[in-house]
Amino acid sequence: MDTRSKGKARWIGALGLAILLVLGRKDAVAGADVASTGDSALPKTPHRLAAAGINNFFQLTGRIYSGSQPSGDAGFATLKKRGVKTIISVDGTRPDVETAARFGLRYGHIPFGYDGVLGTNAERLVKAAQVFPGAVFIHCHHGQHRGPTAAAIVCEGLEGWTAERAHAWLELAGTDTNYAGLFKVVREFHPPSGQELANVATNFPAHAKLPGLVEAMVQIDQQLDALKAIRQAGFRTPANQPDLSPAHESLLLWESFREAQRLETARKRGASFLAELAGAEANADELHRRLTELSTETTPARREVAERTFKAMGQACAACHQKHRN
Ligand code: HEC
User: Fold this and answer.
1) How much is the average pLDDT of 166-179?
2) By alpha-carbon position, which residue is closest to atom 36 of ligand 1?
3) CA pair distance 226, 83, nearest whole angstrom
4) Using a 6 Å CB cutoff, which residues line ligand 1?
5) Is 198 exposed, middle or buried (0-12, 13-18, 19+ CB in 10 A)?
6) Which of 248, 255, 246 is nearest to 219 (CA)?
7) How confident is the model at residue 44 (pLDDT cuts 50, 70, 90)?
8) CB of 90 within 8 A of CB of 181?
């Protein structure tokens, strides 16, 4: 080899090395997205991840993840690959503890509703995330409303998140602003002190005792009462109950009927009962849309439609009770 071709060979070698370096770096960057936990190179703000078997999947911090209920083996495999060891479900359905166990994952079940009334469950969430080993995945059904709320509380309690940051996270997660209670709990949450946290019990069941149909009905009844007061006030927030927003209360009712269909005590009653519940859900959904529409512009025609939908809602309650309860 003469000097010229030696030089050329060296040049080609250098170029090859440079390409390898660039590719290697690219790999490293892409790798950051699949790295398990504790990677200081990870973006500080929550970021969305794409992975099999989990929707609305986000990494919030080095070890906190949020998303939908894992669907089948693929969902749990995704979590395992990320270094997740524990899953916290805040959903009203029984967690799939068996599939999780096959992937070496354990569940802690801390269910709460859409109204944002968490009580001691707020501290329990923080405690669970504190004592559970490895990365922690927090989920509800869709990973959009309650799961992100729970994840926000955990980050406020353990990761020094401010209320503003937690609010921005809910917006990123797509939490519906009509769930005013969820935004409120995140805004007003006071992280427990070290001593307070030390006093929280650590007996987190893998599946909590879930409310039955009777409890669901009691809640539905209260929600309809709130809507009756709203209707009395001309489908507006009643002057003496400033917390009652038509859009919010109707959304809660809709959500209750949706959740009720997943209850074991409802499923046991069979297909025709579930169909009846689905019909009531559709009615509540329409009521929500009508009341939202009415709050943007009130016309006699819109008020008339809202009135009709409200009446149909009451009839749906009575019709089902007649068939399935009385
Ligand atoms: C799909 C059928 C269905 C629909 C729709 C339905 N309910 Fe019920 N409801 C039931 C059944 C069944 C029970 C009895 C549950 C039991 O005792 O196990 C019940 C019980 C109740 C109870 C008694 C709870 C208690 O303390 O024992 C109230 C109150 C109630 N419903 C209110 C409502 C209201 C208000 C609506 C409409 C907004 C409604 N329900 C819609 C099926 C339905």
Assistant:
1) 94
2) 317
3) 45
4) 213-214, 217-218, 220-221, 224, 273, 276-277, 280, 313, 316-317, 320-321, 324-325
5) exposed
6) 255
7) low
8) no
